[in-house]
Design brief:
171 residues, mainly beta, 5-stranded antiparallel sheet, 14 strands
């Protein structure tokens, strides 16, 4: 008598390396991470992106019934992190029988440079004995308060150090 035995093997699912949309994220912009789910048997799976800020899990995003060889992207809202925070993502995948995980690199949120614009020296055509006044607009994407702006005055291309950081200078 011949006995037939059927053996079904199930391999672990796979995840590609976690890729960020920006390797130097700023505090005012959302960050996204992507990974591709795979399963040798073609079994649909579940994928979870776990977002960590300074080693604390603060957000999870789950994707169910993920087909074989599907790229997934999770978006992490900028309101959840700030300048100098460390960001990391762990992606978990399950095919219903086996679970795997893949960690991302750790990113540090950068501080963006402020911008001084609309610089105006008034009056535009000063007369003898008139004071000069400078004004400008300040903007910082990180909402940092203005600090450390440097105002420098020049006469015939020579810096007038005595007037440094003054907004009004006498004639």
């Amino acid at each position: 008598e011949v006995n037939n035995v059927n053996i079904t093997l199930n391999a672990f699912p796979t995840l590609s390396a976690v890729v960020f949309n920006d390797s130097s994220p700023a505090s005012f912009a959302d960050v996204s991470a992507s990974s591709t789910y795979g399963d040798l048997e073609g079994v649909a799976g579940t994928v979870v992106f776990q977002w960590f800020v300074n080693s604390v899990n603060v957000f999870n995003q789950s994707f169910g019934s993920v087909a074989n060889v599907t790229s997934l992207t999770s978006v992490f809202d900028a309101s959840r992190f700030g300048v100098s925070d460390s960001l990391k993502v762990t992606v978990l995948a399950s095919d219903g029988e086996y679970d795997i995980s893949r960690d991302s690199a750790t990113l540090t949120v950068v501080n963006t440079l402020p911008v001084a614009s609309n610089v105006v020296v008034a009056p535009a055509s000063p007369g003898t004995g008139q004071d000069l006044t400078v004004s400008f607009s300040y903007f910082d994407e990180d909402s940092d308060a203005q600090a450390g702006s440097l105002i420098r005055w020049f006469t015939d291309s020579v810096e007038q150090v005595a007037f440094e950081n003054l907004t009004t200078v006498g004639s």
